Predict the structure.
Amino acid sequence: MFEQDTPRHDARHRVVIVGGGVAGLDLAGALARDTGLAVTLIDLATAHVWKPMLHSIAAGTRASAGVEVPYVAQARRHGFTYAAGPALDIDRAARTVHVDRFVLHGRDLLPERRIAYDTLVLAVGSVAAPFGVEGVEAHARHIDTLIEAQNFQADLLPRLVEAAHAGRQLRIAIVGGGATGVQFAAELLQMADIAGGYGLNDSRATLDVTLVDRGPRLLPAFPETVSAAARARLEGLGVHVRTDVKVVAVDEQGLRLDDGAIPADMTVWAAGVQAAPLAKSLTSLTQDQSGRLCIDRHCRSVDDPAIFAIGDCASLTPQGEERPLPPTAQIAYQQAVYLGRHLPAMLAGKEAPPFRHRDFGALVKLGEYDGYADLGKFGISSGVIRGRLARLGHEMLYRRHQMRLHGRAAVLRLWLADRLTSSIRPDDRVAKGD
């Protein structure tokens, strides 16, 4: 069901959720089971995609059609309302969300409207941070949304084919050595291997990938052993890795550094994390340095009891700690589960326990080539699992997310469909190394 203007037509408490990512969509389904709540989910896209999957879609190693979850279908299945269109701003006094017109394939389907709420939950996520670097917005690509990933993929293969036929390289520079940048570099190489299987000669030699980071090592959230191993694996696959590099500008020729330049035909900016534009625009609410909304131990805004925030756009510093929780899918999921369980009680004036996060470690997957799982928090002696088991762990995270949305039986069908329609894997000699 599509929501337009929302006059007060029943006595149910209106919960409006802005953002249909991991946290927002999960919460909408959980709260809709409470018949005393009228739940509306606002998102500018028509379908949800698990964000860690975007780099695979952008590289072309996974088709977006197989992982998209239409919001309309989820709304019908769980009993909430889907409001299509970008949220522009929040009127806290009137308690309304201003939603822009919804345009699909160049046609206006829904007009601008204001959607009223009694309780608002912001789950708008995060985007890469340009850090004031000149030319990022004009010349660098981002992979923060499904549309951006699809647009990159649509441009990538034609450029690779053209470069191969012209006898030159397609140079891609990735800025940001965190999980997104590292995983995307590996997926690009896997795409080149797959393209070679379809008759594109020397596709791996045609693709030239450079990964740069300002810090001293890749994957700073992981142990140094993982950083070193991931760098060695990427370099062994042919990626040029440069750390301790300061990018001062991005232009049509590539990256300008403080001590030189890196030529690139395509530049991807995957550095840093900042709150999505809507959250940053809410200057009347307390924010941290990256524009994330400051919340209390119940995920409620420290300024407005009618507003909650979860996921990457929320900043929560646990009691006794100095730094806020990191903007990860793991934290977003846990906060969605917490509000799904306790928000109805809070709205009824009952006491609820504070949110407590659990650190289940971290996973990073280098395409089908390698993977690393940091499980030191569980007291495992080595702390790190590498190879096939780590890649399986990454896959299981995605299947758990699917199970929350579709149920166990549907996930089995989806898994079988993925096996039947998956792309050809890289040559075993290339993927060897488990």
User: Anything to note?
Assistant: The domain at 13-128+274-347 is CATH 3.50.50.60 (FAD/NAD(P)-binding domain).
